[in-house]
Design goal:
By secondary structure, this protein is an alpha/beta fold. The strands form two sheets. An eight-stranded parallel β-sheet has the order 7-6-5-4-3-2-1-8. It has a six-stranded mixed β-sheet with strand order 9-14-13-12-10-11, with helices on both faces. Helix 3 packs across helix 16 and helix 20 runs parallel beside helix 23. The longest helix is centred in the N-terminal third of the chain and has 24 residues. It is elongated and about 80 Å long.
Length: 573
């Protein structure tokens, strides 16, 4: 037995040494893309001007839309010589196979991108989903966030992908933000910067190109830029000190890319209805010149209404290019956009030197990603590789580190294992993992279920039944795919939550967006309150560990919920 343990430790040590050695040898991204490179010069020299312009465009790709759609993307690759693809919904094996097929169509190897803020599971089935960034914001040990970045990068590379449009470095100081919200690390700019850099460095050190988004900051908006153009009506001083802070820190830390938001910001550019993604004052003047960013600048998706509503028919693409974007993501019509960019070049709206530098920078990113020596991806054991035990272990570690006690002490949370105990899950239609695990510790317990819209008659009947119990554990679950700021429970169910919280000996666990607590008045009266941030089994296990004394809580609230629970709230014992 001891011999086996020593062998395992030896191989763990060797693997660690190899990993650190490989990372130490990886060249710095910013240095790489800004120095002369023989491979880059050679590729650039062989390209026509049309092919060089094509490198700016990154088009949409799916594996769940059928053969005709896949063939249309292949035609765009062949005809327009695009620089890369942005993959969306589908499955891992189908993605890997299609990536291999598409790479064969390309004269210059493609950079393959995806939005994977919480890993492949954000877009793909049969894949791992790590915690949302709001959950990560509660963690006090940033080395865990760095490790998550490494894991996500491994998954991306295993599928043949090179770019993750992450992390989100918006400071979410608007609880009603419809598009950022739980995707942010929180409302504290210092925490957002530290967490974002840890996550980004984890991915980048492991060989993935990353993009901090959405510059100069999408956290204080109440409009979704997918559907309209939000406005930031703040002063330049406010923007400099708050919204831009995490991006400045990320740039200083050597982040590889920055993505530009579609926001109208009069304090930075007075042009009416002009999105920041099309503003040369913001992209070139502030980001590149003032902040000194030397990496890759990408637009947010150019198909979003926040940009194309006022600049249709390729006009958004050419304006984005002239403003300073190096990478034009998801053009509505890349063919038309490329034609307009060619016209702009012929009219000397951009110097030959600037054009060459920017295209070579994109080619140098391909060199850094290893595409100068491209090899196809093997689909063999791919599902097993990305769903490996180490990933599940890290997810549980992240959940354990994030779970936050807002109120209560160890004895209050533990209560008495011998007393008659009611374990109630709200927002579910079957027993939750939290109930099943907790009931093992309370021999004299009974499980109750409450749906989102359980009738008032049934709720009152349950309240009568609960009078015969000595202590209660209540868990609140948001079953939606995306955890919103407000729960979609009926008013009667919300009344039940308040009535339960007012009882003595009640411990409430919230497996939902922490902002939802503000919409549950009376919840603060619970003797104990635990926040689990999202519905995942790992979070429910973590809460049970804290309640039963198997683990001490360490998480801190990453956002201000209400007057009772401001940012940084978190009881430790």
């Amino acid at each position: 037995m001891k011999y086996t343990i020593y062998i395992r430790l030896f191989y763990t040590f060797i693997a660690t040494v190899i990993t650190h050695t490989a990372m130490a040898q990886r060249p710095d991204f910013i240095t790489t893309i800004n120095q002369q490179n023989h491979w880059v010069d050679s590729v650039y020299k062989k390209m026509t001007r049309k092919e060089r312009i094509g490198q700016l465009f990154y088009v949409r790709a799916h594996t769940n839309k059928g053969k005709m759609y896949e063939d249309s993307v292949a035609a765009v690759i062949s005809d327009e010589h695009v620089g890369g693809l942005v993959f969306f919904q589908g499955g891992p094996v189908r993605h890997a196979n299609l990536i291999n097929l598409y790479q064969k169509q390309a004269k210059v190897p493609l950079l393959i991108a995806m939005d994977g803020e919480w890993g492949l599971g954000m877009r793909l089935d049969s894949s791992v989903s790590y915690p949302y960034q709001m959950t990560l914001g509660a963690i006090q040990d940033n080395t865990l966030v760095y490790k998550m970045g490494q894991m996500v990068a491994y998954d991306f590379k295993r599928l043949g992908m090179h770019i993750n449009f992450a992390p989100d470095m918006d400071v979410n100081n608007n609880p009603n933000n419809p598009v950022i919200n739980y995707r942010s690390f929180g409302d504290n700019k210092y925490n957002v910067a530290k967490k974002g850099i840890a996550y980004a460095k984890g991915m980048q050190d492991a060989g993935t190109i990353v993009f901090a988004k959405h510059f100069p900051g999408h956290g204080d908006t109440n409009v979704d830029s997918h559907f309209a153009l939000p406005q930031l009506p703040f002063t330049r001083a406010r923007l400099d000190s708050l919204e831009e802070y995490p991006f400045r820190e990320a740039i200083a830390a050597g982040i590889s890319g920055v993505m530009i938001a579609h926001l109208n910001i009069p304090a930075l550019d007075t042009t009416k209805n002009l999105p920041s993604s099309l503003s040369r004052k913001i992209i070139t003047g502030i980001l590149k010149d003032s902040l000194g960013f030397k990496g890759i600048v990408a637009s947010d998706a150019m198909e979003m209404q926040g940009v194309v509503k006022n600049f249709p028919n390729g006009e958004a693409d050419v304006r984005a290019f002239l403003a300073g974007n190096d990478l034009i993501e998801l053009s509505v019509n890349s063919h038309q956009g490329a034609k307009l960019i060619l016209k702009a070049i012929k009219k000397n709206k951009i110097t030959k030197a600037e054009f060459e530098v920017r295209i070579k920078k994109l080619l140098a990113a391909k060199y850094w990603a290893g595409l100068n020596d491209y090899k196809p991806v093997s689909p063999v054991n791919l599902i097993k590789d990305i769903n490996r035990p180490a990933a599940a272990e890290l997810i549980q570690q992240l959940a354990d580190a994030s779970v936050t006690v807002l109120k209560g002490t160890a004895p209050i949370l533990r209560q008495n294992p011998l007393k008659k105990t009611a374990i109630i899950s709200i927002g579910v239609d079957r027993p939750s993992l939290f109930e099943m695990e907790l009931s093992k510790w309370y021999a004299n317990s009974m499980i109750f279920l409450v749906g989102k819209s359980t009738s008032l008659t049934d709720l009152n009947r349950m309240l009568q039944t609960l009078k015969g119990f000595d202590q209660l554990y209540v868990s609140i679950h948001d079953s939606r795919t995306r955890p919103g700021s407000k729960l979609d429970f009926s008013s009667d169910v919300k009344y039940l939550i308040a009535a339960l919280a007012a009882k003595p000996n009640v411990v409430t666990s919230v497996f939902a967006n922490p902002y939802t607590i503000a919409g549950l008045p009376g919840l603060e009266k619970s003797a104990g309150i635990i926040v689990g941030y999202q519905k995942d089994d790992a979070m429910q296990r973590a809460a049970v560990k804290v309640i039963t004394g198997l683990m001490k809580p360490a998480g801190k609230l990453p956002v201000s919920v209400n007057a009772f629970f401001p940012t940084g709230t978190g009881v430790t014992f």
